[in-house]
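quick one, 471 residues, struct below
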Amino acid sequence: MSQTTNQAKAFDRSIVEGPIRGAVWKLAWPTMLQNIIGGLQGLVDHIMVGRFVGYEGNAAIGVSWQIFIVVIVFISSLFTGMGVLVARFAGANEPEKVNRTVYQAFLTSMGLVLLVLAPIGYMASPMLLELVNATPGVQAEALSYLRIMFVFSFGMLTFFMLGGALRSAGDAQTPLRLGIVLTILNITLNVILIRGLGPIPSFGTTGAAMGTVIAGGIISVFAIFELFSGKWVVRFHRGMNWRPDWEIIGQLFRFGLPTGIQGVAMNVGGVFLLAFIGSLAMSAQAQAAYVVSYSQLFSFITWTSVGIMGATAAVAGQNLGAGRPDRTAQAVRTAAGYGLFLAATIGLAFLFIPNLLLGIFGMEDPIVRGLGVQLLRYLAVSGLFVTVALAYTGGLQGTGDTRSPMYISFISQIFIPLGMCFLIQTFSTLDPAEIWLAIVLGHLTRAILSYSIFKREGWRDIRVAISSDGA
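---
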């Protein structure tokens, strides 16, 4: 009984009782910083592989991640379902239900990774690389990278799962500390394994995958020991039921699968958008401008906005679990305000120093730079819509409405931008500015729909419950 009491005291009750602004910011800033640090890690990988392997190594990593993300999103969607349950139970001050939920998410994800993803991914990797039309040289670099990621992804997934669990329970600083250590460890290993050091040979592109999974494995082993130590707001202990709990697992899929479908849809939409860019008269220049301006520079807005979304989901879910739905609505409005301030600040840089930003990436070609400057102007506006959309998406998902964001994504990320590009290409000549405008209109639609559906407050009636007895 004392274990349960101690665990209950560990929850930060200021999230459901203190000032809303402080509650949102307390969870938002560590999550935003963690996302930025994690994103910079990917940049380092590409710089090193590009230097020591060449452009085919960069392409191999890009293609592999494109495949891996689409596949892994279904497993990681369980963590969204877990976050809904954890936030509700933490808000209601029910620690054992929090612990049971996290354990069942861990058990389910490990089962899917080891019994489904690893064997099927290993065997299907050559076929998947053929499916995305990777050149023979890229396939040669990508095959071992992709297979390593599929077979040994359990460490990285454990890190994602625990980060989401701790954040939903009110602790965003522990995931930040773990993320910093993970990034430093990953970069260190990649420096050694990609280029080689002393008796350790150069593994090239494969070394990047090795560094990623080894770092994830080390952090996940440490994290599991910490779970049993009782130092964290979430804990595992000997008195738990270690068998699968199908009631909780069903709830994980109920709330999580719509997010998985949403993620796949958005990735597929991105692939088709790249195809439209590839059809332009200046396709190579437009693709280069898109990769740097949208995939790299605009990520500073999306990384921070995703951090705000995660914080919003936790605060919204906890307050709804505590029976304070008015604070839930207030938290989402507050989070959107934080997001608008940050997006506007970054957007001003896009407007006033675009050449300086593009020059960091070595964009010297006048056509490429011109297209990049043009796209950044559109993205300075689009970022305002994205951050509002993600704040209200966090509010919907955190309260248990994971279906609405899925439908919104289909409309705003697929039908609007791709439909616009298709119609223009069919009846006229598609140019880069029209694709950039399609991106903005998609983000605007997502913001309007997310705000409108949240304001209807159907989330107030969503019930989340599991039996008190986990035996």
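Confidence is low (pLDDT under 50) at residues 1-9.
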